[in-house]
Amino acid sequence: MRFLKGHGTGNDFVLLPDLDGRITLTPELVATLCDRRRGIGADGVLRVASFDGGEADFFMDYWNADGSLAEMCGNGARVFARYLVTAGLAAGTISFMTRAGVVRAVVEGDAISVEMTPPKVYGVSTATLGHLTLAGAAVDVGNPHLVCGLPASVPLESLDLTRAPEFDTDFFPAGVNVEFVAPVSERHVRMRVYERGSAETMSCGTGACAVAAVALRDAGLDDGTVSVEVPGGQVTVRFEGGECWLRGPAVLVAEGDVDLRAIGA
Ligand SMILES: N[C@@H](CCC[C@H](N)C(=O)O)C(=O)O
Q: Is 209 considered catalytic here?
């Protein structure tokens, strides 16, 4: 099976070109491909499929590393756009379908901007990590997020994210991505994330949008740009006139063929 590997600020993906619809993905196949020892290794899989609906020519079929489906992946969308342009399948402003609706992407040199579902801050819940329980803002970015601000006494680097944070499953019946945030200034934050279905990742685009939305809300602003530092680099999130744009680097690093029998799929 032909694949490419790409990442956006260290959030990495196996891309499977499948414009003729020959690939049948299963949770087991996705989990095997994403296995960092037995497979290729990635935080998720992006199947590049055709779309026939008029609004877009392509469908971003995103799967988390554990084989679960998610509505949206912001970094994945940037890597998906990088693939379409590199493969000569699209140029200029690119539109493609996701499970959260149509997405527009614009290539700006090394960076790619993607128009995201405008984040909706809709409630308050908690996450528990060991002995630390934190209140957080629930944010919908097409997929669910819980944005937890850290007290100044708890350094971001000190968190043990090798284990999943506990959360209120009545509040988030479909699971949640949990962001831990340390402010740098009003419009500059640092974050780490524990992703639903992928564990700790180096970056999360929808998570950055959720965190930026909470930062702007806390500053009493509707519009503005927030810089979000993640372990894998930096992205920016711009809110303007009701739109939300995620911008950051997206690169393809390899391509090849994976032997499905050898990886036990
Ligand atoms: N890394 C992604 C988010 C991927 C989906 C997430 N794990 C979920 O289950 O909602 C991003 O860049 O947005």
A: no
